[in-house]
Amino acid sequence: MTLKATTSLPDARAFLGDAPVMAKRRVAEAGGASDTKQLRVAIVHYWLVSMRGGEKVVEELCRMFPQADIFTLVCNRDRISDFLKTRNIRTSFLQKIPGAQRHYTKMLPLMPFALEQFDLQDYDLVLSSESGPAKGIITRADALHVCYCHSPMRYIWDQFHVYRHGLPWVGRALMSITAPMLRAWDVTTSSRVDVFVANSDYVASRIRRFYDRDSIVIHPPVATDDFAVGKGKGEFYLYAGQLTTYKRPDIAVRACTEAGRKLVVIGEGEQLAYLKSIAGPTVEFLGHQPFNVLRDHLSRCRALLFPGTEDFGILPVEAMASGRPVLAFDAGGARETVSSPQVGFRFGQQTTEALLETMAAFEEVEDDIDPHAIRAHSLKFSSAVFRDRLSGLIEQQLSTHGDRSADVFRRRPG
C-alpha cells in the first residue's frame, strides 16, 4: 500500500508551525497550583552522584511537580535517595563512559555538548538546577525556563585559580585551555533562561556580575522538621562537611587545638591527612557519618564552627534547627542565616586568631543563649517556606509567560 500526501509543502510547514498550540494553551491556562498539574515539566540537574544541598532542592521540585521528568548528565543510583530513585531519570551520553560516575568532573569540557543533546521540545516548563552546567539546555521557544541557581560554576569563575592549583600539571594545562571557551558558553547560555532564582543574596550578586542578569532570592529548603532541640549544655565544638581547602577546616582544627577545646570533625576529603597532622589531642575525626550520627552531634554540640565561604550553607541552618548556635566566617550565605547574636556570631577575618576571639566572646554569653529562639529562627528557611515562595513565583511567571505566548500565537500570520 502506497501512502499519498494530502497536503502541499506550504500547508505542511504551516502545520508544523502550529504543532505547539496545545502546549501554549497549557501554559496560558496554568494560572494556579492545581492547573500546573497539566503541564509537561522537566527538571534539569547537573549530576546526581550524592545527596547534598542541590539534590535536596531537586527532591522538593519533584514534590511540587510529581509529573516531572529528571534530566542529568551522570547519575549514581547507589548514592541518591530512595525518593529520587522512584523518579524517571534520563542521563546523557557521558553516563556510558567507563568510570563516569566517579570521574565526571574531569569531563567538564564535554558537558555543554552532552547537555544540549537533551530533547526538551515536549516540555512546557523547564526547571534547571544550576551549580555545574544545567541552565544551558535548549528548550522550546514558548516554554518557560526557570533556573534555580545554587552558584555560577565556581571552577571557571571566582574559584578558578583555587581549583586549578589543586590539579597536576596536565590538568592545569587542560583547564587553562578549556576554561575561556566554557566561560563564553556559560555567559551565552544565560540568555536561555527566562527567570533566574538565586539561593542567596550572595549568589544573586554573582549572577549579576557574571551574567549581567537580575534574579529573585529564594533560600533553599532545609528539612527543619528532621531536627530537634538537644537537652543540656553542648559538650564539644563541631565541624562538619567536606574537608577541602576552600571550606577552611584547618581554621577550626587549629583554633580548638590552641584553645584546648574539644572538637569533633565529621567529614572526609583530600585535607584529612593534613588536618590530622596539625590537630592536637582535643580533636577527634569521625570521617563520613550517616545522617542520624550527624543529627545527634548537631543536637549535642556547643556550637557549629563554619569557617568557609558558602553560597548559602544548609548546615548552619540544620544546627540552628537543633537549637545550637553557629560561629561563622562573615561572608557568603552566613550573612543571611547567622543574622543576629541570638543565633550565633560571625568573625570578620578568615583566620585562626579571629575564630579564637569569637569563641571567647561566645563562651562569655553561652549560658544566656536560648536554644528554642535559635530553632524558631531556623524555621524561616524551612521546606514549606521554599515551596510556598517558589510555587508562587512559578505560577506568576506562567501566567505572564502564557499571556505572552498566546499573544504571539494570535499575531502569527495566516
Automatic annotation (TrEMBL):
<dbReference type="Pfam" id="PF13439">
    <property type="entry name" value="Glyco_transf_4"/>
</dbReference>
<feature type="domain" description="Glycosyltransferase subfamily 4-like N-terminal">
    <location>
        <begin position="52"/>
        <end position="225"/>
    </location>
</feature>
<feature type="domain" description="Glycosyl transferase family 1">
    <location>
        <begin position="231"/>
        <end position="366"/>
    </location>
</feature>
<dbReference type="InterPro" id="IPR001296">
    <property type="entry name" value="Glyco_trans_1"/>
</dbReference>
<dbReference type="InterPro" id="IPR050194">
    <property type="entry name" value="Glycosyltransferase_grp1"/>
</dbReference>
<keyword id="KW-0808">Transferase</keyword>
<dbReference type="Pfam" id="PF00534">
    <property type="entry name" value="Glycos_transf_1"/>
</dbReference>
<dbReference type="InterPro" id="IPR028098">
    <property type="entry name" value="Glyco_trans_4-like_N"/>
</dbReference>
<protein>
    <submittedName>
        <fullName>Glycosyltransferase family 4 protein</fullName>
    </submittedName>
</protein>
<dbReference type="GO" id="GO:0016757">
    <property type="term" value="F:glycosyltransferase activity"/>
</dbReference>
